[in-house]
Specification:
elongated; ten-stranded antiparallel beta sheet; mainly beta; 811 residues
């Protein structure tokens, strides 16, 4: 894709203000000072263009009078005659005194003074387009010259600076990409600049533009030159263009224009044509509009060109208020065709306009010293959201909705009235994306609207999507058709913070009826998890039926709630706040070997604190224990005709269910843990039980590992009694201190599996961050029988671990 280059050097890079005599004066050049007075002969005339001419009428220098009406010149040479003239927009020129020649020895002349004439210039009324002055009559040419001269005065004033304190301008510069039609903004970047200057931008020299054209092709793209005031005032521009009067447009009937076009009929000459527009009553310059010529027809249809708008300040100074250049972005067009089973790619030399690049700027504020002489109002975008018809949905409201303009950094947020604003904003057509808080949380795509931003700042009224539209976007059309609901919510802990990875279980009871003294119903159950923001949602939830919602989270507790969704609610919310319980409840279920409920089983629950609770199962084999301390506890079971025994389990906040099987010939066995609100991994239960009852020589927890923060895991073993950590030739081993007469090395088990290496190198242990806990067994007698060797062959295991065992449990 071929991108254009905008080679108008902007104001921040070329903040240069010219005044007469700015070039170094000769050593003996005379200095001329003077004052211009208004028509009353007493009031200083501010911002008047004072021109120094030679005897032949050639302009040698220009300057601008300051707030005191003062001006000054350096004469090029003393031995010559000069004339001063004063120019004001809207008035005929005023002749000043004739001075010189002077003696060489004179370095400074007495102050001069002259008074302005009050003869106003009346610009002609034009109702039809005039003829080019290249082929016009003398009378028509004089009309064109009169209007053009008034425009030239404003252009001169915008390029000059008085001797007062300089003007400080603040402005925004922008680059934006529009679609191929040059209408909608696709991308935009904006920067703000401040500088002491009266000039908005600087173009290439007029002579260079006349020789090489305003549009130049280069290897890296196409350069579009924009004309500045120096170019418009140059002899090269005047000699290279024809001029005619242009009638006013319907939108600005008070204006009169001077149209210009390149001399000759060469359509391939890359030049500019356009109109300089003035106010017919005040003769003030309003703007210059131009278009590039000599371009291919498909490029000219994209209207490449630009506009420069002028501003007259209160004190009479002139400056450029805003400007822009429109340039096409071109790309080759590739055509593809399919013939039978063969796919033929045809690459043509055709070039099309893919997009439009617009570069420009706008002055927002001008100061002189501490005084503000101009402040731009700027355009604004005002949006007002309206509620959709239908059932209100929490979170989907006109208040707090967020909007962005695509491709820009413009953004807005609506208030309680649904109103949001962006100001200041560059005029243009944008695509606005609006989201409510609910749409954002559900991941529903923003609703898009085309908005046209102008200087009038009119209010744009938009309507939020309805709840049914949101349901279709978040779930499916089938959910809408079946009149089901999207149920959503947020899980929070007791402090109000979001809880992620919470288990959300929804149970819907349906087809409820009675048969005799029994109630029969069917049910649907669905489960999901909350995200990192604690948010969850379920599609297809039936309305107006009993619903049970159970939410549980690790270390945050469990909540059960019953409710119904209204029949007219497409979207409903069920927010949950978990309350941490400091105790647990146990539902104990006992079965025989044939999985039949077994009653009359005596169970003794013993907690870590030593508290014992006795319960007996009923005929259904169930017993309930309440207010059990959190943590690991043991459950001892006993019944006549069955082998008694003890199992260990972990109690967590909320409800816990424990199912145990008893056998006449074997100890009780843990069957299934069906409901656990927050549970340590089952494979850590035995580790925690042995740690709680001190069944291992040493137990090292995850908390201890994090607190010590070792580089290697074996460093956690250096303080374990009866174990000597040996560093030998770069290898690290663990030796038992119980047998000092021979080398006795501890074996290693990973997650309950004893490794085959008889003298394991401890450097190969898992990284500290991967480990849940470590157990050290100093002798074979304390090693749990559940430990197995690789392949499941336990024959001789105790003999092979006679020196002890290091058991590592990974997370």
């Amino acid at each position: 894709m071929r991108r254009p280059h905008y080679l108008v050097r902007l104001i921040g890079l070329c903040a240069v203000a010219y005044s007469a005599g700015a070039t170094p004066a000769a050593l003996h050049a005379q200095l001329v000072r003077g004052t211009v007075l208004a028509t009353d002969g007493a009031t200083p005339a501010t911002a008047v263009i004072v021109v120094l001419e030679n005897s032949a009428g050639l302009v040698l220098a220009r300057t601008l009078s300051d707030a005191r009406g003062a001006f000054r010149f350096q004469l090029p040479t003393p031995v010559a005659r000069y004339r001063l003239r004063a120019l004001r927009v809207g008035y005929a020129p005023s002749d000043g005194p004739v001075i010189g020649p002077f003696e060489q020895s004179t370095t400074e002349l007495p102050p001069l003074q002259f008074t302005l004439k009050g003869v106003a210039v009346a610009l002609p009324t034009v109702s039809v387009r005039g003829r080019d002055d290249c082929r016009t009559s003398s009378a028509d040419g004089q009309l064109v010259a009169r209007v053009w001269e008034e425009g030239r005065k404003a252009l001169m004033a915008s390029q000059l600076a008085s001797s007062d304190s300089p003007l400080n301008a603040e402005w925004i510069e922008y680059d934006r990409t529009l679609d191929s039609a040059g209408v909608r903004v696709r991308a935009q970047s904006v920067r703000t600049t401040r500088s002491a200057t009266t000039r908005a931008f600087r173009s290439a020299p007029a002579e260079s533009l006349a020789a090489h054209g305003y549009v130049v092709d280069r290897d890296d793209g196409t350069v579009y030159h924009a004309p500045d005031a120096d170019v418009m005032l140059s002899d090269a521009f005047t000699n290279g263009h024809c001029f005619r009067l242009e009638p006013p447009t319907d939108s600005a009937p008070e204006e009169i224009g001077v149209a210009f076009r390149p001399v000759g009929d060469d359509d391939r000459r890359r030049d500019i044509s356009g109109v300089l527009w003035l106010d017919r009553l005040t003769s003030e310059l309003r703007r210059i509009e131009y278009r590039y010529t000599g371009l291919p027809a498909f490029v000219e249809r994209a209207r490449p060109g630009g506009t420069v708008e002028f501003l007259r300040l209160g004190a009479g100074q002139w400056m450029v208020q805003r400007w822009h250049v429109r340039m096409p972005i071109l790309a080759r067009r590739d055509n593809q065709a399919t013939v039978g089973r063969r796919r033929v790619l045809i690459t043509t030399s055709g070039v099309v306009v893919r997009a439009m690049q617009v570069s420009g700027g706008e002055v927002t504020r001008v100061t002189q010293g501490e005084r503000t002489v101009f402040r731009g109002e700027g355009a604004q975008l005002a949006v007002q959201l309206r509620r959709a018809t239908g059932t209100p949905v929490p979170g989907h409201d006109i208040n707090g909705a967020h909007g962005v303009l695509t491709g820009t950094d413009y953004a807005l947020r609506t208030d309680s009235t649904g109103t949001g604003r962006v100001e200041p904003i560059l005029p243009g057509q944008y695509r606005l994306q609006m989201r409510s808080a609910l749409m954002d949380s559900l991941g529903i795509a923003a609703r898009e609207y085309d908005v046209d931003v102008g200087a009038d700042g009119r209010l744009v009224q938009l309507t939020l999507p309805s709840a049914t539209e949101l349901l279709r976007a978040a779930c499916s059309a089938d959910v809408v058709r079946r009149e089901q609901t999207l149920l959503r919510g947020t899980v929070r802990d007791s402090t109000g913070r979001p809880v992620g990875a919470a288990t959300v279980r929804l149970r819907a009871m349906r087809n409820i009826d009675t048969a005799g003294d029994r109630v029969r119903f069917g049910e649907d159950v669905v489960s999901t998890m909350s995200d990192s923001l604690g948010q969850w949602r379920v599609c297809g939830v039936p309305r107006d039926v009993p619903l049970q919602l159970r939410v549980s989270a690790m270390a945050a507790g469990t909540v059960d709630t019953l409710f119904r969704i209204a029949s007219a609610a497409p979207i409903a919310a069920a927010d949950v706040q978990l309350r941490v319980s400091r105790t647990a409840a146990l539902l104990l279920r006992t079965f025989d070997a044939q999985e039949r409920p077994l009653g009359d089983v005596l169970a003794r629950v013993r907690t870590l604190s030593g508290r014992e609770i006795d319960v007996r199962t009923d005929n259904a084999g169930e017993a309930t224990v309440r207010d059990v301390e959190l943590g690991v506890a043991t459950v001892h079971l006993r019944r006549v005709g069955y082998v008694e025994g003890t199992v260990a389990t972990e109690f967590v906040a909320g409800s816990n269910t424990l199912q145990l099987s008893l056998d006449p010939t074997a100890p009780p066995a843990l069957d299934t843990v069906t409901v656990r609100a927050n549970r340590t991994n089952n494979r850590f239960t035995d580790f925690e039980t042995r740690r709680a009852y001190g069944l291992s020589t040493e137990s090292i927890t995850r908390e201890q590992i994090e607190r010590r923060n070792p580089v290697s895991l074996w460093q956690m073993l250096t303080r374990v009694p009866s174990v000597l950590v040996v560093d030998s030739l770069g290898f690290v081993y663990a030796r038992s201190m119980r047998n000092r007469n021979e080398e006795c090395w501890l074996r290693v088990a990973i997650n309950g599996i004893v490794q085959s290496d008889a003298r394991p190198d401890l450097r190969t242990l898992p990284a500290p961050g991967e480990v849940y806990g470590i157990e050290v067994f100093a002798g074979a007698a304390t090693i749990p029988p559940t430990m197995t060797s690789p392949g499941g062959n336990d024959i001789g295991l105790r003999a092979r671990t006679g020196c002890g065992l290091i058991s590592v449990w990974t997370r």
